[in-house]
Write a structure and sequence with these properties.
homodimer; 189 residues; mainly alpha; two-stranded antiparallel sheet; 5 helices; elongated
């Protein structure tokens, strides 16, 4: 009986709820949130005229995401997650047409790759968040002054892409839980 | 047949490999790595005598993890992960004695909670890593000077707990993959 269950012959393709639609929706949500995060990050440039000691006129000093490796890492990670969400959304849409065994294999593969993507997005959000916090509050012990009182628009963008990245991480966590929940009732090896 | 499989009557408790031992080993590894990370972080204090303008004698300036919210977050997250690994290592050891259906439920619960813990550890490592990078390299655009040339021992500790935290994240990723792999051959709902 175990063998026939593994082969999937005993299960009609319409057995139980299909995870395809929910997966596809969540992956579209992931695609939108990661895309917004990247767009908000790359458009975060702000130039401020600052008075520098020794120079009689104000000097224009720009702030942009490329000046911080943490923000570059976030943009790279979100771009990868964006592309990943697009590919897997299309893959999830094919779930319905698949045989139960193939669907099970795809779900397991997606579960593990979603977990990898979750780690990537969470670490990138954390990295950018740590640097964003210093920009917002500074650190008097290390002698790092806050810059958000000068670069307000830039910091609003940082807060924006951090919030959307956090949301993308939560979507990935829901996706992992959803894939895992699909195996509820299964007997593991 | 599907019903009997779900009830677990058709499967003897010795069916296939038992994930208990591998889970318990990995969770012990997670416990050790998170504990090391916390210990290295809380013992990272270093005091350096610095010459300050206007004061004729060197002033002792300490550097410790409590001076950075990012490092406090890492210690908190690793402490949670440490406690979690201890509880779940004991839970994993009871796998062998469990019926297949109960084992399946436990595995699913552990899979989802491991994913939550993975997100926590990855984000904390990222946050501390972002701040550690500034301490190591500085950021001339933001006017943040590096401090690792002064606080060498402190920065060695930072590099140490970052490395061990990264390892803990990888262990959690393996745990999620291992739990997922246990369902290989199962037919999802």
């Amino acid at each position: 009986m175990a063998e026939s269950a593994v082969k999937g012959d005993a299960y009609p393709s319409s057995h139980g709820p299909q995870p395809g639609a929910a997966h596809a929706c969540l992956r579209v949500l992931l695609f939108v949130s990661t895309l917004i995060s990247v767009v908000v990050a790359v458009t975060s440039k702000q130039t401020v005229s600052v008075t520098v000691a020794g120079i009689p006129f104000p000097v224009p000093l720009p702030a942009k995401f490329t000046q911080s490796p943490a923000f570059i890492y976030l943009v790279a990670a979100m771009s990868v997650a964006c592309l990943y969400s697009l590919i897997t959304a299309l893959a999830a849409l094919t779930f319905v047409a698949k045989k139960p065994v193939s669907r099970a294999r795809s779900l397991l593969f997606l579960l593990i790759s979603d977990a990898v993507m979750l780690a990537l997005v969470a670490s990138a959000t954390g990295t950018a968040g740590g640097v964003g916090y210093i920009a917002w509050k500074g650190n008097r012990h290390a002698g790092w002054t806050k810059i958000c009182n000068v670069y307000e628009t830039f910091c609003h963008h940082v807060a924006g892409f951090l919030g959307v990245s956090l949301f993308a991480g939560l979507v990935l966590l829901v996706l992992v839980s959803l894939s895992a929940h699909s195996f509820h009732g299964c007997i593991p090896k």
